[in-house]
Amino acid sequence: MCINIYRKVYYKNMFQRQYLSSLPQTMIMRYFLQRLWLLLSVFVLCLTANAQRELTATITGNVLNDDMQPIAGASVQILNQNKGVITNADGSFSIVVPAQKAIALVFKAVGFRGTPLFAAGRRGEKVTVTIKLIRSEQNLDTVVVRNTKRDRIEAGLITIEAEKALLNPSPIGGIESLIKVLVGSNNELSSQYNVRGGSYDENLVYVNDFEVFRPYLVRSGQQEGLSFIN
């Protein structure tokens, strides 16, 4: 089995040498430069990621209330910066902060007092903390409700008793006008109310036991005269 593997590697290397020897010198140089550039790119990316990790520290922990229960949705923000995170459903959080530098984290939640925390971590270090927030209580002044009658001391202030309001004259003339005032009501007792094909006071005319009327009289509101019969 070792002999077979050796043969495969040998044939592969021999094929590569033959392939490269058949290419022009410029293409061979371009091939090696591409390989070299790829290796350098990977090396630089590794150095950059390592440098960033070395310049930061990670602070993790949990946010609890007075009953040692986790607080979900609490904000964890670096003081005087726009960087922050929100706690998970179990009250846990994780935030990346600058290393070798004392920073202040502010913990806030609805119904709780804001609590600051000063922490510092070495390069690449992971610091674990537990924060307990205190409930925020606000006392309201006593509210007293009284039934007090206002005196008529202001101009234009009129008090009407409910029993006497029914006896006051109505500014609306009749029941038809009152129906018009109602929102969304259809008033049938109006000047457009038609009976017998015309207006509400139009005469009823029968010719050979059939009720007849002319539509144009309905539009004009006129009554049919005797000229129709004659």
Question: Can you give keywords for this protein?
Answer:
9 strands, alpha+beta, 29% helix, 20% strand, 230 residues, Immunoglobulin-like, 4-stranded antiparallel sheet, disordered N terminus, 3-stranded mixed sheet, 3 domains
Mind explaining what this structure looks like?
This protein is of the alpha+beta class and 230 residues long. It folds into 3 domains: 2-52, no CATH class; 55-132, Sandwich (Immunoglobulin-like), CATH 2.60.40.10; 160-230, no CATH class. 29% of the residues lie in helices and 20% in strands. The chain has 5 helices and 9 strands; from the N terminus they run H-H-E-E-E-E-E-E-E-H-H-E-E-H. The strands form 3 sheets. It has a 4-stranded antiparallel β-sheet, with no helix packed on it. A 3-stranded mixed β-sheet has the order 4-1-7. Strand 8 and strand 9 (210-211) form a beta hairpin. The longest helix is centred in the N-terminal third of the chain and has 30 residues, at 25-54. The chain is elongated, with a radius of gyration of 47 Å.
